[in-house]
Specification:
It is built from 5 helices and 12 strands. The strands form 2 sheets. A 6-stranded antiparallel beta barrel has the order 1-2-5-4-3-6. Strands 7-8-11-10-9-12 form a 6-stranded antiparallel beta barrel. The protein is globular, with a radius of gyration of 18 Å. The chain is about 15% helix and about 40% strand. It has about 210 residues and is α+β, with helices and mostly antiparallel strands.
């Protein structure tokens, strides 16, 4: 589990693909004395397991599912990536609960200066846009952000200077692809409501039966 607050940016060394697996190599100035093989690190929002360490270089095994769901296959060597180690219980939760499980890839539609901030608008598939709500949370390349507005197939976020400086968002140009994790609560609610939608929607009776009232 993560918070969406980026600890550091790293550099993609390579994505080595062979057969049905891939190995991601990343260099980063993370505290080596606090990291062990088997630890979880979110790389651009995707929860990956450290499989080897050498100096400041970290190796991660990447499954075909992860390659298919993320932007990893399109990143070139030298690309910057956002990094966050797993949440430590007992610490402050300053972002929001991020699982590190990517739902889809979105694309930056526009980038507009708005006062001291930058307004970023993204397009994404409608089935994932419906999991977002205005003033709710979304993770973009692992960064915890507040949704400014949302439509049937897009959403926007406002980025403050600190976030621009400390993450890869400063270099993001229109057309760029990003990893998206929508809100976990919305996904659970959608799953619970799906059978009732087929039967004509939720009613006070079904809410009572399921303990919501």
């Amino acid at each position: 589990m993560f918070t969406g607050l980026i600890e550091a940016t790293g550099t993609l060394v390579s994505l080595r693909r062979g057969g049905d697996k891939a190995v991601l190599l990343v260099t980063a100035a993370l505290p080596l004395q606090e990291i062990r093989v088997g630890d979880s690190i979110a790389v651009n929002g995707a929860c990956l397991t450290v499989t080897a360490m050498q100096g400041q270089q970290f190796s991660f095994d990447v499954s075909p599912e992860t390659v298919d769901r993320t932007t990893f296959a399109t990143l070139a060597p030298g690309s910057q990536v956002n990094l966050e180690r797993a949440l430590s219980f007992g610490g402050r939760l300053d972002g929001h609960l991020v699982t590190g499980h990517i739902d889809c890839v979105a694309r930056l539609a526009s980038r507009v200066r708005h006062g001291n901030a930058v307004l970023l608008s993204f397009s994404l598939p409608g089935e994932h846009a419906r999991m977002l709500v205005e003033k709710g949370s979304v993770a973009v390349d692992g960064i915890s952000l507040t949704v400014n507005s949302v439509t049937d197939d897009s959403f926007s976020v406002s980025i403050i200077p600190h976030t621009l400086e400390k993450t890869t968002l400063h270099a993001l140009a229109p057309g760029a692809a990003v990893n998206i994790e929508t809100d976990i609560i919305a996904k659970y609610l959608a799953r619970l409501a799906a059978p009732h939608a087929k039967q004509g929607g939720l009613t006070m009776k079904t809410l009572l039966q399921n303990g919501f009232v």
